[in-house]
Design brief:
By secondary structure, the protein is an alpha+beta fold. The chain folds into three domains: 90 residues, Pseudouridine synthase (2-Layer Sandwich); 132 residues, Pseudouridine synthase; 64 residues, Archaeosine Trna-guanine Transglycosylase, Chain: A, domain 4. 19% of the residues lie in helices and 35% in strands. It has seven helices and 19 strands. Strands 1, 2, 3, 4, 7, 10, 11, 12 and 13 form a nine-stranded mixed β-sheet that branches. A six-stranded mixed β-sheet has the order 15-19-18-17-14-16. The protein is elongated.
Length: 301
């Protein structure tokens, strides 16, 4: 079974779940998960976790993401993108400077109301299920943060923007909100995710390329080992006589391992004496112990 993360290029028309299903078929293994939904119309980076790395899915979902989107001004749809039903059209009266100011005004924190066509659940029902049934319910605004927003091209009524943002940000809704600010409405015409954490679109692989690499026997070269996701963390290696502690998921004392580390360094990568990656441990400085935060070794020995 393969263990690690692979940088998949999700193509248009596929859901994120479609990608996982196809990867299960390509690799002939069930333990596969994705790291954050991309709409079917969107394309780009979708890190896929294999085997033990599925424990990373929630951690990668929280990472900063970067998108390139085309905003179409003057049109409002029920899905907030051009795949939906047009609800309203309005001529754009603003000039380039006013459009630029409106786009850049979203830099920083803002409260975003999630779209009805989303996988968020309210009382156990996904919002898009309610939307498809013709129901619209009140949604609470959620705080999101736009770390960076740039205008790449402006050919009104279209504006190409690059956005780096926090977890939970809907680029469709950002486009809608920019349109509202300009009093003409807006929606998203296209979306390319160019980055998730340290995974970039230039390094991503289409499903057909992954299949080809599998047939050539070279796919392993493109699977990032789990511990590489934590390369910025310090490292501890267990003394052989204490391997059993970490193999069983127990706490251990710092002097039972070797490595340049102090409790003030925070979380640490832990390996057994044979250099098999165990997981991430965090310090309990009061008791001079390290306890497991996220363990990737499968079961006890």
């Amino acid at each position: 079974m393969a263990d690690g993360i692979i940088n998949v290029y999700k193509e248009k028309g596929f859901t994120s779940h479609d990608v996982v299903a196809k990867m299960r078929g390509i690799l002939k293994q069930k333990k596969i998960g994705h790291t954050g939904t991309l709409d079917p119309m969107a394309e780009g980076v979708l890190p896929v976790c294999l085997g033990k790395a599925t424990k990373l899915c929630d951690m990668l979902t929280d990472k900063t993401k970067t998108y390139e989107a085309v905003l179409l001004l003057g049109m409002v749809t029920d899905t907030q993108d051009t795949t939906g039903t047009v609800l309203n059209t309005c001529p754009l009266e603003a000039g380039e400077e006013e459009v630029k100011a409106a786009v850049l005004s979203f830099l920083g924190h803002y409260d975003q109301v999630p779209p009805m066509y989303s996988a968020l659940k309210v009382d156990g029902k996904k919002l898009y299920e309610l939307a498809r049934a013709g129901k619209e319910i009140e949604r609470k605004a959620r705080p999101v943060e736009i770390y960076d927003i740039r205008i790449e091209q402006m050919e009104l009524p279209r504006v190409t923007i690059t956005v780096s943002c926090s977890k939970g940000t809907y680029i469709r809704t950002l486009c809608h909100d920019i349109g509202e600010k300009l009093r003409c409405g807006g929606c998203m015409e296209s979306l390319l995710r160019t980055r998730v954490s340290d995974f970039y679109v230039k390094d991503s692989l289409t499903l057909s390329r992954i299949e080809q690499l599998r047939d050539e026997g070279n796919l392993g070269e493109y699977i990032l080992a789990v511990d590489k996701m934590f390369s910025s963390y310090p490292q501890l290696v267990m003394k052989e006589e204490f391997d059993k502690l970490v193999h069983n998921g127990n706490r251990f004392m710092q002097n039972q391992a070797v490595g340049e580390y102090t409790m003030s360094d925070g979380p640490v990568r832990v390996y057994d004496s044979s250099m098999e990656f165990i997981g991430i441990y965090e310090p309990n400085s009061e008791r001079n112990l390290l306890k497991p935060q996220k363990v990737f070794l499968g079961g006890s020995r």
